[in-house]
Design goal:
Layout: H1 11-16, H2 27-39, E1 49-55, H3 73-81, E2 83-85, E3 88-89, H4 94-103, H5 132-138, E4 142-147, E5 167-170, E6 182-184, E7 190-192, E8 195-196, E9 199-200, H6 209-223, E10 231-236, H7 248-251, H8 260-285, E11 292-298, H9 322-325, E12 329-332, E13 341-343, E14 347-348, H10 352-359, H11 376-380, E15 389-395, E16 418-423, E17 426-430, H12 454-458, E18 464-468, H13 484-498, H14 534-537, H15 545-569
Parallel strand pairs: 1-10, 1-11, 2-13, 3-14, 4-5, 4-10
Antiparallel strand pairs: 2-12, 5-8, 6-7, 8-9, 11-12, 15-16, 16-17, 17-18
């Protein structure tokens, strides 16, 4: 547990928010009191308590041990005393990462391989998937989720409390106001989004979500007996996703940062850092710590337009470059055999499912069909990772690259299709991987919006890239022309995976989801007895290339327009 307090914060202001509970004590007093409280309890045998902390849109360069401008003393100390995962992969956007964590399966095996689940889409995590919390319930765990769900809610059967969590407190959509909990899915399509179980939590407006979620976790820890039953908490912070909102106390230490977005973003990261300190203190105070595994992970790369940074990696959130898919991650636990080290073992977000089920006492039968691997020995003992490759994704619905073709894929694969895979040291991308520039930390107050489009205009259009990602993690040297033999091998792996893919679930939006038709809140709007008709709504066959090209140009125009607006705002 970290003992270094953040400097420059108004402790009395934080106390007035009901956030800090120990700020009148010195750091050593905090540590000593927690250790004494924990020492008075007998050791807890059996399966470990599991605390999984996920942040939203936190970039590779947005933590103290990677960054020079963001201070995260608590996270840094936990990582230093545990195992830093420096070869850890996630997905480039929110829904896919959460679905893969919860199911242990690649997107192509759940039908969620395209985009995110929008608030008005009648879509959610497939009902035939047995989730991680459901497996942990079978193994005797008390399971709780706090924070952002973003895995669909059109039916009550989609809700967290129906998918394995004993309790739930948080938001169902992808982005909300940190104080009012309003969420918008377009002009005039706004509603309240904070839920207690399966009910709307109207009475919590005005409380900063990072603080509110932390208080709920502390309440769970205080009310549960760590000796009677193992505990699983999935804390899915809304932070540091837009909108950029933070109490002033956290902004003040970053007053010298010229870039306003970066300043606010850094403040939000610091708020998360203090929240994690609050939680780890609670673990010690209530007798959990000695038998607890803490996992920290971000859900995707950072968004530089909103203050995030993935430097020195290439790309950003929403792309299959390393800046979009290489994640921040570490494990902290007294149960680790080899601590205080950096792990280069290849780990993917799907691996947490079998790893945690195994830690909880489960056997192979409970992990049948998952795409993840049990990586506990690689993390705890420093052994080789059992994982040799990662399918980042195959998205048949994403805009096809104009320069791609089956011919350019050596007759093996249509390189117009967006896909990415890593096998050993090699990483292959096809189609349009997304914006692929290297974006240094933002130090200027603002920048012209057109800068974001320079890479698109100056680089020749390609549809195949190959990198030796171990030797070139920043993806500077494309070796696709020098190593066609490797390209062909990886294209063949894409073909193999594509044969196992299920149809894409991406239905049209449903007007019945409008919050104004549902009491002003985002809630389930379809009865559980109403049948789904995926065959009608998800298939997207398009032989009309002119119409598709026109739509692509329209999207490109609005993307550029939005970029300029965001730039001017910043």
């Amino acid at each position: 547990m970290a003992t270094t307090a953040l400097t420059g914060f108004s402790m009395m202001s934080l106390l007035s928010l009901g956030y800090l509970t120990w700020d009148l004590m010195s750091p050593n007093q905090v540590e000593n009191e927690a250790d004494q409280t924990s020492a008075n309890r007998p050791p807890v045998p059996g399966p470990p308590h599991i605390i999984f902390i996920m942040t939203d849109d936190q970039g590779f360069n947005d933590i103290g041990y990677h960054s020079s401008d963001i201070r995260t003393p608590v996270l840094d100390k936990l990582a230093e005393d545990g195992v830093k995962l420096e070869n850890y992969y996630i997905q480039p956007i929110c829904t896919p990462s959460r679905s893969q964590l919860i199911t242990g399966r690649y997107q192509i095996h759940t039908g969620l391989q395209h985009s995110i689940i929008r608030p008005r889409q009648p879509n959610c995590l497939p009902f035939d998937q047995i989730t991680l919390p459901q497996r942990l319930q079978e193994l005797g765990y008390s399971t709780h989720m706090v924070g952002k769900w973003h895995l669909g809610f059109y039916k009550k059967e989609c809700l967290p409390t129906r998918r394995g969590f004993d309790t739930y407190f948080g938001s169902l959509t992808g982005s909300i106001n940190y104080y009012t909990y309003d969420s918008c899915d377009g002009p005039g399509l706004c509603g309240f989004d904070l839920h207690e179980g399966e009910s709307v939590a109207w009475g919590q407006r005005g409380k900063y979500s990072t603080h509110l979620y932390t208080q709920r976790v502390r309440k769970i820890l205080a009310s549960h007996d760590p000796q009677s039953q193992p505990l699983f908490i999935f804390l899915s912070f809304q932070a540091v996703h837009t909108p950029l909102q933070s109490p002033r106390e956290y902004i003040y230490p970053y007053r010298e940062l010229e870039n306003v977005a970066r300043r606010k973003y850094a403040a939000m990261v610091s708020a998360v850092d203090e929240a994690v300190r609050n939680i780890t203190y609670g673990l010690r105070k209530y007798g959990y710590y000695q038998n607890t595994v803490i996992i920290f992970s971000t859900d995707n790369g950072g968004q530089p337009l909103s203050g995030g940074s993935n430097w020195p990696l290439r790309g950003r959130k929403g792309t299959y470059w390393e800046g979009g898919v290489r994640g921040l991650g570490f494990v902290h636990s007294p149960l680790l055999r080899k601590k205080r080290r950096v792990s280069k073992a290849l780990v993917h977000i799907t691996d947490w499912y079998p790893t945690l089920v195994r830690l909880a006492g489960g056997n192979e039968s409970l992990m049948e069909g998952v795409d993840g691997y049990d990586v506990w020995e690689a993390i705890s003992d420093g052994k080789e990772s059992p994982r040799l490759e990662i399918l980042h994704n195959i998205d048949p619905l994403y805009n096809h690259a104009r320069g791609g073709s089956l011919q350019k894929g050596y007759g093996i694969w249509n390189t117009a299709v967006q896909a990415s895979i890593r096998v050993g040291d090699w990483k292959l991308l096809t189609g349009d991987p997304g914006y692929g520039d290297w974006i240094p930390p933002q130090i200027l107050p603002g920048f012209p919006g057109d800068w974001w489009n320079l890479e698109r205009h100056t680089r020749p259009r390609k549809s195949v890239w190959l990198f030796n990602i171990s030797g070139d993690p920043c993806e500077h040297f494309d070796l696709s022309e020098q190593r066609p033999d490797i390209v062909k091998q990886l294209l063949a792996r894409l073909v193999y995976y594509n044969r196992t893919a299920v149809p894409v679930r991406y239905p049209s939006e449903d007007v019945r989801a409008d919050p104004q038709l549902n009491g002003g809140a985002w809630v389930p709007w379809i009865g559980d007895e109403e049948e789904d008709s995926w065959d009608r709504v998800y298939q997207k066959k398009s032989k009309d290339w002119k119409k598709k090209l026109k739509l692509s140009k329209s999207r490109s125009f609005f993307r550029r327009l939005n970029t300029r607006i965001m730039s001017n705002t910043i």
